[in-house]
Design goal:
It is built from 6 helices and no strands. By secondary structure, the chain is mainly α. The chain starts with 16 loop residues before the first helix and ends in a 41-residue tail after the last helix. α2 packs antiparallel against α3, α2 packs parallel to α4 and α2 packs antiparallel against α6.
């Protein structure tokens, strides 16, 4: 006799293949500074693309030409390493912000400010990411705090006792 395959408990639903992959990707993404690394990678790519612009658009040419390609490459590599190796996020984010700021001088004003801002914001997000923090819940799934219980009503003062505002001495 062949034992039945171990499946989900009765009464539960199994998500379809796409939902399972999306959920597992979201879980993987939540354990690393994904968006910070992605923005840093995007900033490096944007600066590299502005280096390929026509010569009438290029603001700086000459001896800084090598650095104009090296710094965005370092930014892109730091962005990838932030995603793939989150244990070293502090080092990669510091190097990422320094190369982003260095691109101001070497790479068409940091890819016309867009790549510079993407790199600085992404590096800052990765630097501030905390690995042991509980994931945030969407607002619709948060529990609202219970309303405080109404205070018990106090009994009024007896009618026979006179109420005076002056001290009796």
């Amino acid at each position: 006799m062949v034992p039945p395959e171990a499946g989900p408990p009765a009464g539960t639903t199994v998500p379809a293949g796409g939902h399972r992959r999306r959920r597992s990707f979201a879980t993987w993404r939540g354990r690393r500074p994904f968006w910070g690394g992605f923005l840093l990678l995007l900033g490096g790519g944007e600066i590299l693309l502005t280096e390929q612009a026509s010569i009438s658009v290029v603001l700086q040419a000459g001896a800084g030409g090598v650095a104009a390609y090296v710094l965005p490459l370092i930014m892109a590599v730091c962005g990838l390493l932030l995603i793939l190796n989150p244990a070293q996020r502090l080092f990669y984010s510091v190097i990422g912000v320094l190369t982003s700021l260095g691109s101001w001088v070497t790479s068409n004003l940091g890819g016309f400010f867009v790549g510079l801002l993407l790199g600085v914001i992404g590096s800052s997000m990765a630097f501030g990411w905390l690995p042991d923090q509980e994931p945030r819940r969407p607002r619709r799934f948060r529990r609202r705090p219970a309303a405080p219980a109404p205070a018990p009503a106090t009994a009024p003062a007896p009618a026979s006792a006179p109420v005076t505002d002056q001290p009796t001495s």
